[in-house]
Amino acid sequence: MDLRQLETRGWIRAPQDAGIAAWVAAAQGPAQDVLADPDMRAKWLQCQGTWFVGVDALPTEPNGSIAGTALKGDVIDALSPLPPLHRAQLSVTYPGYPKPRAGESDANFAYRLKRDAAHVDGITAEGPDKRRFITEPHAFILGLPLNDASPEASPLVVWEGSQTIMREALTEALAQHDPKHWPNVDVTEAYQAARRVVFEQCDRVTVPARPGEAVLVHRLALHGIAPWKEGASAQGSARMIAYFRPILAAGIAAWLR
């Protein structure tokens, strides 16, 4: 599998793969168990019941396996050797997504609704003023759909080529600081300015996918979740995707390369 499109387009949808399909089949039962767990629902069901965030919610092993089934396939071969993997996120959206999240301001909800809550993973909002810091430099973003859903059922959204704009802006913002201090550098203004450029210059594309396929998103690409359109449908009434975002051990400098 050729990963060069990650650097040019910012995302890849890998075709159906028997290894990925087997992993998905093994993950479906545990996923339903997670969604039925009252404690998990209390912790992760957000946006007035329209989004189950599910960070580290699936019981996967550090090698990515689940219920004794290995994580394998062409896309996994292309990413190998894999770093130790966190427990997979279980991201589930329901009809009506998005509704306002608890504590979300009107402006932030408008951004979620109109801009798909577009973000770069690993740049987190900290403190009461929501200042932005690079706290979780990821090696890659790998999405594995767990059920069939129509293309309008809150698909992943990616701004094509946004990774180049983000890389340049963040590199410039960090250049005047010692690399050992980079995790503590406030990149809010640079990040927000780069987002505005992305919205002006990059195409917004939706990336629906089916079980057995895999979606790779460049770790610096701006991406989000589209609203659930009227008339959209999904097997079991919700769109479910498992995500792996392992931390890049080499840190921010490698993340920017």
Supply the key terms.
single chain, 257 residues, alpha+beta, Jelly Rolls, 7-stranded antiparallel β-sheet, 8 helices
Would you kindly provide a brief summary of this structure?
37% of the residues are buried. A hairpin with a 4-residue loop joins strand 5 and strand 6.
Describe this structure in words.
- The protein is an alpha+beta fold and 257 residues long.
- It has one domain: Sandwich (Jelly Rolls), CATH 2.60.120.
- It has eight helices and twelve strands.
- Strands 1-10-7-12-4-3-2 form a seven-stranded antiparallel sheet.
- The model has no long low-confidence stretch (mean pLDDT 96).
Show the helix and strand layout:
Elements: H1 5-8, E1 11-14, H2 18-36, H3 38-44, E2 45-46, E3 51-52, H4 74-79, E4 89-93, H5 106-115, E5 123-126, E6 131-134, E7 141-145, E8 156-159, H6 162-174, H7 188-201, E9 204-207, E10 214-217, E11 223-225, E12 239-244, H8 252-256
Antiparallel strand pairs: 1-10, 2-3, 3-4, 4-12, 5-6, 7-10, 7-12, 8-9, 8-11
Pfam family, one: PhyH
Keywords: Dioxygenase, Oxidoreductase
Protein name: Phytanoyl-CoA dioxygenase family protein
**Count of helix runs:** 8
CATH architecture term: Sandwich
CATH class: Mainly Beta
List the secondary-structure elements in sequence, H or E: HEHHEEHEHEEEEHHEEEEH
Radius of gyration, Cα only, in angstroms? 18 Å
* Spatial order of strands in the largest sheet: 1-10-7-12-4-3-2
- The total beta strand count reads 12
Instruction: Report the portion of residues in β strands.
Output: 15-25%
Kindly name the structural category.
alpha+beta
Mean pLDDT: 96
Number of domain modules: 1
Residues in helices, as a percent range: 25-40%
CATH-assigned fold name: Jelly Rolls
What's the main sheet like? Answer: 7 strands, antiparallel
Q: What general outline do the C-alpha atoms trace?
A: globular
Alpha-carbon distance between the termini?
A: 21 Å
